[in-house]
Amino acid sequence: MTHLDAPPTTEPDLLRIHEVSAETGLTTRTIRYYEELGLLKPAARSEGSYRLFDPDDLERLRFIKGLRDDAGFSLAEIGQLLEDDLARVRNRSRFRSTTDATERRAILEDAMGRVDRQVATLQTKIDRLEAMIAEAHARRAHLENHLAEIDAGAEPAPHAHESRR
Amino acid sequence: MTHLDAPPTTEPDLLRIHEVSAETGLTTRTIRYYEELGLLKPAARSEGSYRLFDPDDLERLRFIKGLRDDAGFSLAEIGQLLEDDLARVRNRSRFRSTTDATERRAILEDAMGRVDRQVATLQTKIDRLEAMIAEAHARRAHLENHLAEIDAGAEPAPHAHESRR
DNA sequence: TCTAACCTTAACGTTAACGGCAAGGATGTG
DNA sequence: CACATCCTTGCCGTTAACGTTAAGGTTAGA
Lengths: 165, 165
Prior knowledge:
Two copies of one chain form a homodimer. Chain A is an all-alpha fold. Chain A has helices at residues 17-24, 28-37, 55-70, 75-96, 101-151, and strands spanning 44-45, 51-52. The interface between A and B is large, with 44 and 44 residues.
């Protein structure tokens, strides 16, 4: 077992691809594939061209996974959503490179607009899902109605099949 | 006691695949593919083995499309959700074939359970999406915080965030 | 009846999203 | 320094979800 801590010589907490895989639950192949698609930037490379990932990259990968698994977005759609995120990261350096309050304001407001768009996209999906739930509830109510009729103990009206929806 | 309806010798409003396609926005190939996967039953066939669809089939296809596009479920997952729906349709004939109130109750309660499971599945997805929205709101709040600092005057507090690179 | 427009099955092609090698270089540990 | 592990870049294989002919049967209208 190694007893010396990693001395903070230069950059700390940079992970190699296998550790990132264990951390995110994505396979190394998938991570490389996402980079190939442009969803991720290499973060950094070691002397021997090993990929090195920082915490921001992990967050980004988890975000991608969430959009993919939980939201069911395609990688193309995720690419759109991440274009926003990517611009946000680029804005960080721009942000630090200026002290002009007006420009900083503009950058921040731009970033906020991007986040708002992400939220709107997700909200649209939620709305549709809720509409489907509402339909399901309608079906359920219909069944409950039948049940009540039976409990009332009689043959109900002819019920000429479904009417309009 | 109930007098019989007019004999439905020939069922009306049965659509052919192209009309169904126009009606649902799915291609004919897709509709046949869904049947091939078992997501849909042929409804009926003409003398020359043309597929004929009734209104229930249209509803089912729209439901499938909603699960696919809006909810982002795979066709395999949709198959699971529809197993419930399919059983529901089968139950209809069983339902009509009995007059035993107890059995009718059982069938209806079973159907309600299936609907409830569909709702739960959809709700799970909504919950995850809302969690992602919450994260986005957190990012937004962070940005707003920065903005407030700028508006309050130049250099803000040290800000022990992860601003170190 | 004849034909244009629709339908059938069968089979091969395509794209997205990876999985799985293979050949060779990089790293760290005894 | 030797060796076991990692990593790299290809490149081919696979599955899902269709698209696209091809070859031929069916329907409805003039």
